[in-house]
Amino acid sequence: MTAQTPPVLPFRDPRLPLARRVDDLLERLTLDERIALLHQFAPAVERLGVAAFRTGQEALHGVAWMGPATVFPQAVGLGATWNEDLVRRVGEAVSTEARAMRARDDRVGLNVWAPVVNLLRHPLWGRNEEGYSEDPGLTSAIATAYTRGLRGDHPVFWRTAPVLKHWLAHNNETERDLTSSSVRPRVLHEYDLRAFRDTVRAGAVAGVMPAYNLVNGRPNHVSPYLEEHLRTWTDEDLLVCSDAGAPSNLVDSEHYFDTHAEATAAALRAGVDSFTDHGTDSSKTIDRVRTALAEDLLSEDDIDRAVRRQLSVRFRLGEFDPEADPYAHTRDFDTPAHRALAQEAAEQAVVLLKNEGGLLPLAEGTRVAVVGLLADECKLDWYSGTLIHRSTPLEGLYERFGAGHVTFAEGVDRVRLRTPAGTYLTVREAAGAGDEARGADGALDPALLAGRTDLPPLTADADGTELAMADWGDGVLTFRAPDGRYLSVADDGYVRASADQPGGWVVQETFRLEPHAHGHLLRHTGTGGHVSVAADGVKVAAAGEEHPTVFELVVAERGEDAVARAAAGADVVVVVAGNDPHINGRETEDRTTLRLPAHQERLLRAARAANPRTVLVLTSAYPYAVDHTGLPALLWTAHGGQAAGTALARVLAGDVSPAGRLPQTWYASDADLPGLLDYDVIGSRQTYLYFEGTPLFPFGHGLSYGDFRYDGLECGTEDGGVRVAFTVTNTGDRTADEVAQLYVRAVDPSVPRPRRELAAHRRVTLAPGASARLVLHVPQEAFAFWDVAQGRYRVAPGAYELLAGASSEDVRLTGTVRLGGEPATPRPVLVRGLDAADFDDQRGTEIVDRAKAAGDAVTPVGAGTGELLFQDCDFGDGVARVTVEAAGEGEIAFSLNGGPVLAVLPLSPGTPGPYDYTTLSADVTAAGVHDVHLGLRGPLRLAHVGFSG
């Protein structure tokens, strides 16, 4: 008898439509199995041959957290390239390596959490390095390119499944799970939603991750915008993955819900499909879902909807079609092509901010002194992979100019710490530890050092150890032993020389010197405890058990002295300054100032005093406000990954003409900045779109070693938008890239509009004397704004300028077109009334949640006083009453056109809760078109205003 082949289950039949296969598998799963799939670490379903699956693999600029991988420039550096083709190729390389790493380690996930499309609204945001630009159009263009590279170009199967971070209006780390971003409708639609919308519409996005913060008083993890906006932009089943720990935050820190079952149900109903909570332990999430079902807070349909979206992504990744998956056998990893691409990306990310007197490029044979705290560093950030290759500026310049032409001075202070007993802190040598902790290339391996407790702790003796001390700003210090190991504190509290670099979720390698008596206390920033010298070694005591040692700081050499010596003997000095991505500005920590740390300012002054031919290279995750008066040359690059040093040296030498452009405004001082929590880019005139001051360097700025001429502008309307053409000619003597930028501006707007807004750009390579005729198409929607009176986008009729040039402020050509558009009409208040959040202008208010599920209301900031303005309200033939829906207590004053108060509507004290609205009315008389002014006083929430005859 012949054995029969078991039938192929429909979900494994590649001939069937995807939706049919997903539904078939979903129907075969039991309720318990479906609930288990809601956690980030979804277990295997062995009876169906379904493997375990994990949502989430960090891949911001290379595969992260999973060991060695190609490390590309930080995201803000990729944004500075203004080059979508390059970024798409980077995405391809990253996803290819993810597949190759997955083949040998199934912990590597294919649902990648990248890119970050949060806009770089405020340069003090600690995670500035993770975004692409302050402009929504440029951000979406770069993000779309990266997601297309991550996805791959197969019509059915995806190489990886990208998830955009972090939905929505997330631009501060300070109390990030407690703060609410007040986002008025125009800012919501024209700014914050736009970067997500355009990237999702491009079709290469698998999902999004909500942010920790609240928007308009409501946590992003229960945001109605997930369904109202996000899922209307595509027909794909988008997967929404929670951020780590955020589901629990809904109760534990935000106190938005009373129980975790209620919070979990609300998140699922709002559209969250995968819960990243409690690490690998899924039991709490499972228990919360089961409780929510038992309490009728959820239905099985809610669970099925989320599981269906997860399964859809897994099918697209080829999990159930291994033989047909074109990416299943990918093995390309750390290839020569990937290394070359990392270098190309690092070169294209360099921005030449200033170059006077022809100091750059450096001539052959130039004697170069390279100095500064970052001169011999190749820094990684929280979302980097482990370096396979590395190149520091010093190494790059050695390679390019020869070791005989390059001198080096790091510029750290060389210090000893003396105890009251006259002894000094001493780093003890660990037998064999040095060799054990070094790789084949001789570099210290952080994986073998960080957190080790088997290395000997510091002691104190008569000689002591001279330590390299660096001040990274705000008094935050690192100390390094002569062999390169950083002082660090492990779980047992002892201080050891046991870290290759500062790092970790809680950085254990930073300290502060606090003046005390005739010396200093040394406080460890990671634990908050003070350092003391004990019989068994140097340690940080637990709170309440401290007997801190008072140290005297004995300086053997100031860093600026070493810098001055090196600078004096060179033809040119290259000062490499900037930040360590794990210190003073990173995830969980915003910056406090735009200024360069005082230590680095001292080094720069010393170099310039010794040698005026000084180049400042800022290598940083964010902008700085630096005084560059009299400084001949200034460059900026984000931390450039594994090829950073080689790329910088090639730019300095002129092998590559720089063509990076600033993806965000560089402000001149802290005084130019709004509050970190002020998300109203229109009202407080933020970013290049609205900023009316003089920036240090404007958005889109960047110089070249070439010269370019713009001419022949032609512009005119065409079906669906505007056509613009102009010619760019390289009038210089070397091949170079130019980034041609096109901006639009409403000439006579009736509402506040951007001073100018990026509409298109093109990066072109031109040989000397060559020209390129650029033809750019600007869609009609690029001229639209969100009309709060109508609750939709509208193009206003009138004149619009087209500005072509080399930056937002370097405009070379200007043309004008007239668009028909749609004329403004007065607000139909008799039909729609006034939703409080749809104001034209405001003072002293913020938007909050009208109810937990949906809706907006307005409240005075700090329960004080505020005012709302609604322009051009049409009362028709007349009204006799005004009615408000409000909660809380206080009063609402109604007036017209800034005149006297016509009615006061008081809310009695003792209204039960913030969502318990009451309706109040008062007699008023109004006819025709008027501006409505509403004065708000007290802890109230105003939701809606209506009128009747």
UniProtKB/TrEMBL annotation:
| GO molecular function (one) | beta-glucosidase activity
Keywords from the UniProt entry:
Hydrolase, Signal
User: A Pfam family matched by this chain, by name?
Assistant: Fn3-like
Q: Which InterPro entries does the entry link to? A: Actin-crosslinking, BXL, CBM6, Cellulose-bd_IV, Fn3-like, Galactose-bd-like_sf, GH, Glyco_hydro_3_C
Segments forming domain Cellulose binding type IV: 827-949
Family indicated by similarity: Belongs to the glycosyl hydrolase 3 family.
Q: What is this protein called?
A: Exo-alpha-(1->6)-L-arabinopyranosidase
Q: What species does this protein belong to?
A: Streptomyces ruber
Q: What is the lineage of its organism?
A: Bacteria, Bacillati, Actinomycetota, Actinomycetes, Kitasatosporales
